[in-house]
Design goal:
Length: 90
């Protein structure tokens, strides 16, 4: 018996741990729960290693890749889709 019963049906299972993202929901959270000023995004992005927050289009491209044949036999992967390396601090 396979450890992954879905693999016998050729179903691949992968996951994305999505980091801090620039979305309308995040804007609402910042305004309503953190009393953030109108320039909160600019300030937050300046503090990030790559100078910006993750954008929804980037996540959409990753999802499209994972759903495509280009991702090959990749299965059982959990991808930390963020600009920080877990366990590493500078």
């Amino acid at each position: 018996m396979s450890l992954n019963p879905l693999s016998s049906q050729r179903i691949r299972v992968n996951g994305l741990n999505i980091g801090w993202m620039d979305t309308p929901g995040e804007h609402a959270i910042q305004a309503n729960f953190h009393n953030a000023s109108g320039d909160w995004l600019e300030k937050a992005e300046q503090r990030q290693p790559f100078g910006r927050l993750l954008k929804p289009t980037e996540v959409a491209r990753m999802v499209a890749f994972l759903l495509s044949d280009r991702s090959g036999l990749m299965t059982g992967s959990l991808i930390d889709f963020d600009q920080h390396v877990l366990g590493a601090h500078s």
